[in-house]
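User: Please predict structures.

Assistant: First:
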Amino acid sequence: MSSGNKFGFGPLDADPAAGKRKRSVGPMGAAVREAAESLQEATEAKVEQRRQNAQDAKDFRAAQDEGRLLVDIPLEEIETSDLPRDRLELEAVAASDEMEELKSSIQQRGQKEPVEVYLDDAGRYQLKKGWRRFTALSQLRAETGEDRFASIIARVEKGQGARLDRYVDMVEENVVREDLTFAEMAQVAITAAADPAIDEIDPDAMVPRLYGSLHKMKRSYIRSFVFLLCALGDDLKWPKDVARNLGVDVARALKNVEGAAALRTDLAVAPDRGAQNDILAKFVEASKKKPAADKPAAAPREKFEFHVGNMKVTARKGECRIVSPDDFASVPRAQLEKAIRAFEEALGKGNPRVTSL
């Protein structure tokens, strides 16, 4: 009996020729493996899709908060009553050949540029930019009755935008395209200054706030038209037809000579644009022959101050005070008298007599 184990038999010798047992994947195992791999790939794809969806949602909310999304709004839900338009003679613009061209373009190719709107205090959409596009679509809807003209693509301003910024946005597009006349730009400044929601009441000071991106020469032209429109009021019936140079010349003449009342009287009875501009041109020519109006003398200043080196000088009637860190008591009297004499002579007071104290 073998002592290999208690059963009396030893281990069987493996057949060396048999080699190691080959383990191959059967049909069921292959199917399970493929299913596992497919599940792993699907899981990874789902994880990636969820990550992408989360990023898209984040980007969407950011675009929504920043007012970068475009929405389709029914025309009937948009009003134009809150913000005064930057164009004069709106009815003429609405019936112009340019409006017909814009309508034809929208009819053939659709609306290519969005308008901009904002929500007023009552929660209604108010038009900020794109009056011509809004008007063209409104006319097309009325003329054709087609549903495709019943709404407008718009960008909605989010939050409570500053009132002045809305004026700037309104005129910015047309200013860049040079589509506004100087009279229209001046009228926007006048209207904005009269808006109780804006802290500036001076139309002239409103010009750089509205048109800060323009060259200073253009801002100067706008100021001239601001003065012109304020001086002539409603008697200037066709301000858009006043050429830049003519408007600037009339404004300059009104500042230098008297005659605004007479000019307004003549303009009030002008039958048409041509007659209006002839009246303005004649006023400019006549003003060149008139002496300039005397300007009231400036009131004398009670006092003024300035610095010379490290000395502060205060001048007023009967007194010229010098404050300095120097100790004038230590200056020799003769030197001090010489300085005072030079001071008097520079003022043209002659040779004063210094009295000893």
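Second:
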Amino acid sequence: MAAAKYVGAGQWVPDDPSLTGLREAVQACEGCDLYREATQGVMGDGDPGAALVLLGEQPGDQEDRAGEPFVGPAGKLLDRALADAGIEPESVFRTNVVKHFRWSGRRGKQRIHKSPARGHVTACRPWLEAELEVVAPTGVVVMGGTAGKAVFGASFRVGDARGRPVAWPEAYPVAQPPEWVVATTHPSAVLRTEDREAAYDALVADLRVAADLLR
């Protein structure tokens, strides 16, 4: 099935972006259909001058309600993994390739996550480009398949790419491209796996690669 056609977020992104301006502007975004069922748009948060950007998929149920990225269980696990890898959690900037929560159905009060479609990722790309322009990080860690495919294309596979620093792809031009990208799994995948200890250790090992590159 072909990806849905959306107008994209470009017309809502400020011409001279700042992180505060982006957080305000995203609330008016109607670049795809996700704004209809989400509580609010959720832009990235963290150190505005961070050398490292952590890039995930989309806000989850708790992030959608709070208006901040990575505040749920996956975010807490990510904080612990960063610290274990030698990276101060407060020193990074965290964001997602899609800024509105996509969900389908409920489990009690919790809305059930549904991965964004390719069309949603494409429509949201101007927001991520603006964030990268403002923060201008040295490196990016892409967490999970959705984030990896957003940056590297449809052929990206976490298992094939994780833990190896590569150059920022020319096919994804930004004003000041990061020097390198490291791929890893999304922390929510660690929470879902049966062998959580091994998955957590692998996540920390990947983050240590980024930590070494930042030294």
